[in-house]
Structure formats: C-alpha cells, structure tokens
Design brief:
The complex is a heterodimer of chains A (about 350) and B (about 375). Chain A is an alpha+beta fold and about 350 residues long. Chain A has 11 helices and 9 strands. The longest helix of chain A is centred in the middle third of the chain and has 36 residues. In chain B, about 55% of the residues are buried. The chains are: A alpha+beta (about 350), B alpha+beta (about 375). The complex binds flavin-adenine dinucleotide.
C-alpha cells in the first residue's frame, strides 16, 4: 500500500479526524510561566488510549505503530500540546516493555544516565510519576524504573519554557535489568525522530499563523502578502517545512520497513533530524520577520512554536552531530546515492 | 490552505528497486568501458547521441510513450527512477533530455495523430532531439509578452521573431515555438498565443551560438525569418498556446534534474573525506540529508503526476529548494576543496559546478517567479 493509500484508509482518516478534535490548536499557556503538564489533556489522551498508543495491548497499550504515532506527534507539535507523549509511550513505555517490566498506569519520562547517575535536560521529569532510566554499568547496559520521589531534581527549562530538568539517581540503590547496547542507541534515534515529527507539525502551525497574519495585516494600503518580498519569506518558510515533512515521512517509512536497527533507518532518521534542525532556523526567522513586532511579544502564539522547534533540534543530539553522522554513514557506504535511494551500490 | 504543499510519497515498489539496480549496473559498465566520464549538469551540457541511442536500445528513452508510437508504455515512476540514476551519476543525456521530458508528453497530450506517428518513434529511438522555443530577448519571466509573430498564410503560418537562450538548438531537430498568433489584448494577455512545431532546418531559421560564461556553447539565438510552418505542424489549438506552454513547463519544472545537477560533486567530496584529502565538514552531511529529503519529495511529485493530479505547486516547492541545494553544493565544494583540489576529477567538477550554478535558479522559471506560485498556492495572492 502506498503512503497516499495508507493515509486515505478509513482507519487512518478517522484517526486523523480524532486527533484534530483532541488537539485544538493555540491552547493558552500562562504567559511568562514554565509550561505545566496539561492534566486535562493528558486524561483525555489516557481515555482515548493515546498516551500509550504504541504500547502492546497485553501491557495496556493501544498496539498501534509508528504510522499512527507520527500523526499523533505531528498533532502535538502543531498544538504545542503540553503532554509527554513521546517520552511516556515511545521511550519509557518502550524501555519497560523491552525488559519485560509491567507498565502500570501513570505519567513517565525517560533518561540516559551517565556513570554518576546524572542526566541533564530531562523532559517533563518534575511532572512524571516515575522515570525510566538507562545506564551503562560495568556489567553492561541496564534499565530500571525510578519513582519521582527517589530522584534528586533541579528544575530547568528549554527555550520554550518546557520542563527540562536535571536529575541525579543513586545508581548503587538501583537494580536494573540487562539490555543490549543497541537499546541505548535506539533511544537516541527514537527521540530524534519523535522531535522531527513534532517539529514538522509545529512548522505547519507556524505557516498557518504566518499566512493568516500576512493576508490580514495591511500596510501601505495593501495586505502584506501582496508584497513580493513578504511572499518570498513565506514561500521559503513553506518549502523548508515541506522538506522537514518529507524527510520525517521517509524516516517513518524506514522504521516500518526495517526497524530501528537497520542502517538505512538510522540514515533516514539522521536525515530527518538534520532537515528539521536546519529548517527550524529559516522557519523561525522568516516567520518572525513576516509577523513584525507582534510576533516578538509574549502574548502572541508564534513564540510557543518557534521556540519549541528551536529547542527540539538540540534534544537527542545536536543538528551538527546528525550532519556528522550523515557524512560518516556516506563515507562508510562509499556510495552516497545508494545510501539515499536505499539501493545497491554502483 | 492545505498544510502539505507536497503530498506524501508512497512506499517504495520493489520492481522499481530492481529497475534502479539494472540501470545502475549498465551505467557502471559504461563508465568502466570509458564511454563517458561522470560530469556536472550533464543533462544540459553533455550531448552524446551514441550514448542516448544506447539507452534507447535498452528501452530507457521514451519510456512513457505508448508502444504503438515506438515507446515502451512504462509508468511515470519507472521513468523517474531511470532519470534519477542518469542524473546522479552525471551521464551525458542532453541529446534526449528535452525530447523525452517535455516534447513527448506535449505531443501525446496536444499533438495530432499524424504528429505523434511522425515524431514519437524517433524520440523513443533517441534519434530526434528537441529544444525549447520559449524565451526571447524581451521575454523571459514574462513569457506572455513574446513578440515572435505568427501570420496566417495559405496552408499554414509564417513565423518571424527571435528566440533566445535556446539550449542545444544547434543539435536539435525541432522546437515548439511559442508565438503570438493574434494581436495582444492587454486585458487578456494570455490569449492569442500558439505553439508551432518548428523544424530547425527549415528555410528562414538561423541559429547563432551564444557562449556561456564558461566559454562553452550550449545556448543559441534562433532567428526566425518568415519561417513557413504548415498547418499540420501547429501544436494543439491556435490560441491555446498559454495553457499548452504552462502544461509543458509543468514537465520542465518537476523532475529530479532540479536537485541532482551537481550530485557528482557530493560523491567526490565524500570520497575525499574518506581518503583524507577533504576536511570532514558537517555541511557535507547536511547536504546529504537535504538531498535525501529532496529525493523523497521529488518521488512524491512524480507519483502525483502519475495519478494525473495537478502538481504545479509541489513541483515549484521542489524546484525552489532543489535548485538552491544543488547550487549551494557547488559553492560548498568550492569553499572546502576549490578548483585547486588535489583530486583532478573533483577539481574539474568544482570548476564546472561553479560555472553552471548561476543558471540553476534561472532556467525553467526563476526562483522568484516560483516563490510567487507558492504564495498563490498558499492563498496570499
Ligand atoms: C542555463 C539556461 C538554459 C536555458 N535554456 C533555455 C531554453 O532552452 N529555452 C528557452 O526558451 N529558455 C531558456 N533559458 C531561459 C530561461 O528560461 C530564462 O532565463 C528565465 O525564464 C528568466 O528570464 P530572463 O533571463 O529573461 O530574466 P528576467 O525575466 O529578465 O529576470 C531577471 C531577474 O528578475 C527577476 N524577475 C523578473 N520578473 C520578476 C517578477 N515579476 N517578480 C520578481 N522577480 C522578477 C527574475 O527572477 C530574475 O532574477 C535558459 C536559461 C538558462 C540560464
């Protein structure tokens, strides 16, 4: 089934429709304050089974796959939703299932700890009931679930005032379950893909805001959108957002086709993270330019999305680390074109 | 406003992967046998009629032309895959490019039965070359302002005017000449235009070379002095030239030649990084990521064309992004390797890339014009 057919399948259409009802965009965050977990939205998601969309049905999840998760992540991105969907389901839930631990109801995030049991900038940690941690012990990689109360936590935020807390866990008090090193690797790819998808959704919302503004706002007796210079700003924003979408779609297809262990999936995710990361610069810059001073204010919706895409691109690896990875993958493959097309080398 | 300017691409078809491998193996053979050296912008600059005929013999020219007209009745996606492979390797395909890309589909859409039978088999055999007769000295972006004039005479039309920047006219057999067949009505500028199949060996046609800044001869000025075009060589409807030329531009703008013109530079840079002669600059990686994304977008545009949808907006997105990316790649190679690169092949590609790059964002419709198309698609104008 081609992607187009898949999107038109009744189930996915209904799912997309449901998402658009759940995530009414432009939700009103308290101005100037740290973004708090949107408990009401989270309960809705829980009722609908969206909080653990990809969890197995035996473990209380909805048993869906990355195709549906992608739509959900785009929707959360577009709505600047204050809910840890990626962390709870695609990271924490996945880790627990990987090691065969129960996934009891609750809000979770996940983190990779260093040898001292520290992790920096952990999303939503202060609001989580528990944190699923992954660390490398002398015996190899381990996974454990730690209650929020058993973690030392210093609050911090990202550029968009989303909680990104610094943690310390007493490793000696933890009993972990063994996992192969590949799991720690996969953690990074999963996180990066989730952010690329949410960014693509946020870019769509930004484009919407910019088109609305430039068609309504009049200067020199004409709507701004009638000026070619403004059209060019918006067109470039739109093309970069399209590229971010295309690259993220390709990565989702690669995950569905080959799983996260596959080299071509990893290449596709690196490309998605790179495209979304570079697009964020142009999308944020051009959107701000097109909106003028109003977009620079706390009260306007733009900064919520623009600051998110700028923040998200440094989580799970910097943009330039993904660029370096793409180059390394190309060097290893020896044939860049074969790598891009997923075909045989020349 | 639709959030997605470019539709989603479908999942890859294994049959296409197989075709890709076949073309790839053939191209490798050809390179190994010394038939061609991979180059830059070879779909414009490298005419090699023997190579084109060799491709045609394999069924890789005129792929989407129906079998009854000497073609191969294959899908748009199959053609897309072959096209991508030819471009990525930098094969000398200029001799077939315009005929295959836009003349054939326009003939199929607007041509008479007689025209189809006359030209399509030769195009599919790689024996007929085509050029593009749109631009004029005073008509570039504003194509509706063409001054070439077609006057009704007994049994046909007499055409006078000057076409400019006509790539490959000195090798080509024919072009579709866009001309004004009725006086300009300022209120309806797109009316009164027509397309004529001008055989470039007709009496009254003079082709003068124009050297591009690299000193190479790709462009021409084509003077049409009272050139007779019989009625049976009128393309489509008299007066419907605007709609036809716009449709032709659709084919011209949507293909992978809009992001792969300099791809060979990227392969060489990566090899340079591996052998230590080029610094491992992360911008090379970023470019790889962009081209991977472009490949995906361009695939989606082709699928959309295959479904018979209007792909103007999506094609504009790909062309604006792609021509910028392929040009930036030429610049990047110049910045980090330069025309003095130790690897002689890379140095050659850098030189060619820098010399060709200014044209990328002009030909086939400038980025400025295409941004306007995108803005219109977004409902801004
Ligand atoms: C390598 C190459 C090959 C070509 N091959 C062919 C060919 O085979 N056949 C053929 O017919 N033509 C060919 N062309 C011509 C090409 O289609 C034109 O160059 C193009 O349409 C631009 O027209 P122009 O050069 O007259 O520039 P102009 O239209 O004079 O434009 C100059 C600049 O002004 C900008 N501009 C113009 N109008 C506007 C506007 N309304 N809004 C904003 N900006 C504007 C343009 O974007 C451009 O940057 C070729 C060109 C190149 C570079």
């Amino acid at each position: 089934m081609s992607g187009q057919d898949a999107l038109q399948s009744t189930e996915l259409r209904d799912f997309t429709q449901m998402l658009s009802e759940v995530f009414t965009s432009g939700d009103d965050h308290r101005i100037g304050e740290v973004v708090e977990l949107d408990r009401a939205l989270w309960s809705t998601l829980t009722e609908l089974g969206l909080d653990r969309l990809t969890g197995s049905e035996e473990s209380g999840g909805s048993g869906a796959g990355w195709r549906e998760a992608a739509l959900l992540l785009e929707a959360t991105g577009g709505a600047a939703a204050a809910v840890p969907v990626a962390e709870n389901d695609l990271l924490a839930g996945w880790l627990l299932e990987t090691v065969g631990l129960d996934v009891t109801p609750g809000v979770r995030t996940a983190a990779v700890l260093d040898a001292d049991g520290r992790a920096r900038h952990v999303p939503w940690a202060r609001f989580a009931d528990s944190i699923v941690v992954l660390w490398e012990s002398p015996q190899g990689w381990q996974v454990a679930e730690v209650a929020r109360g058993d973690v030392e936590l210093v609050e911090a935020v990202n550029l968009a005032a989303e909680p990104r807390d610094h943690l310390r866990v007493d490793l000696s008090a933890l009993s972990g379950r063994d996992v192969p090193a590949g799991v720690a690797d996969e953690f990074r790819y999963r996180g990066a893909l989730a952010r690329a998808l949410a960014s693509a959704g946020a870019m769509d919302r930004i484009l919407e805001l910019v088109v609305e503004h430039t068609t309504a706002r009049v200067q020199f007796g004409r709507p701004l959108g009638k000026f070619q210079a403004v059209q060019a700003l918006v067109a470039d924003l739109a093309t970069e957002a399209s590229l971010a979408h295309a690259a993220a779609d390709a990565a989702v297809d690669a995950v569905l086709a080959g799983g996260f262990g596959d080299a071509s999936t990893r290449f596709a995710i690196a490309a998605a993270a790179s495209c979304a990361g570079h697009a964020a610069s142009i999308v944020a810059r051009n959107a701000h330019q097109a909106l003028g001073a109003i977009g620079f204010t706390m009260e306007h919706e733009l900064h919520r999305h623009a600051n998110r895409i700028l923040s998200w691109r440094s989580e799970f690896g910097t943009v330039s680390s993904w660029d370096a990875e793409l180059l390394a993958a190309a060097g290893e493959a020896g044939d860049v074109w074969a790598l891009i097309t997923g075909g045989p080398a020349r | 406003m639709s959030a997605r300017l470019v539709p989603r691409a479908g999942t890859p078809d294994p049959a296409l992967t197989e075709l890709r491998a076949e073309v790839r193996a053939f191209l490798k053979e050809q390179i190994d046998a010394g038939v061609f050296t991979p180059g830059i912008d070879t779909w414009l600059t490298r005419w090699n009629p023997e190579f084109t005929r060799a491709l045609a013999a394999r069924g890789w020219v005129g792929m989407t032309i129906p079998v009854e007209y000497g073609g191969h009745g294959r899908t748009f996606m199959e053609r897309f895959v072959v096209t991508e492979e030819l471009l990525a390797v930098g094969a000398p395909v200029a001799a077939q490019w315009v005929a295959d890309r836009q003349a054939a589909p326009s003939l199929l859409k607007y041509g008479t039965e007689e025209q189809k039978q006359r030209f399509l088999p030769g195009i599919a055999a790689g024996e007929i070359c085509w050029a593009i007769g749109m631009s004029e000295p005073d008509s570039g972006s504003d194509l509706a302002s063409v001054k070439t004039k077609a006057t009704r005479v007994d049994g046909g039309w007499r055409i006078s005017g000057t076409k400019l920047w006509t790539s490959g006219a000195h090798h080509a057999d024919a072009f579709f000449g866009l001309a004004r067949s009725a006086p300009l009505d300022p209120a309806h500028r797109h009316d009164g235009l027509s397309q004529f199949i001008v055989l470039l060996d007709s009496p009254g046609v003079t082709i003068r070379p124009i050297l591009s800044m690299s000193g190479d001869h790709h462009f021409n000025e084509v003077l049409l002095d009272d050139v007779f075009v019989p009625d049976d060589l009128v393309l489509g409807q008299i007066g419907a030239g605007w709609e036809q030329v716009t449709s032709e531009l659709g084919y011209e703008r949507s293909g992978p030649e809009r992001f792969l013109s300099t791809f060979g530079v990227l392969e060489s840079l990566v090899h340079g990084v591996v052998d230590g002669s080029v610094e491992p600059d992360t911008r090379i990686g970023a470019t790889i990521g962009r081209i991977a994304g472009m490949h995906r977008m361009s695939t989606a545009v082709s699928e959309s064309l295959e479904r018979g949808e209007n792909a103007e907006l999506a094609a504009s997105v790909v062309k604006v992004l792609g021509t910028k990316t392929e040009g930036d790649l030429a610049d990047l190679a110049d910045e980090i390797a330069g025309y003095t690169a130790a690897d002689a092949h890379l140095a050659e590609l850098v030189r060619a890339g820098v010399m060709q790059r200014p044209g990328f964002t002009l030909r086939g419709g400038t980025s400025e014009i295409l941004r306007g198309v995108i803005a219109r698609g977004l409902g801004m104008r």
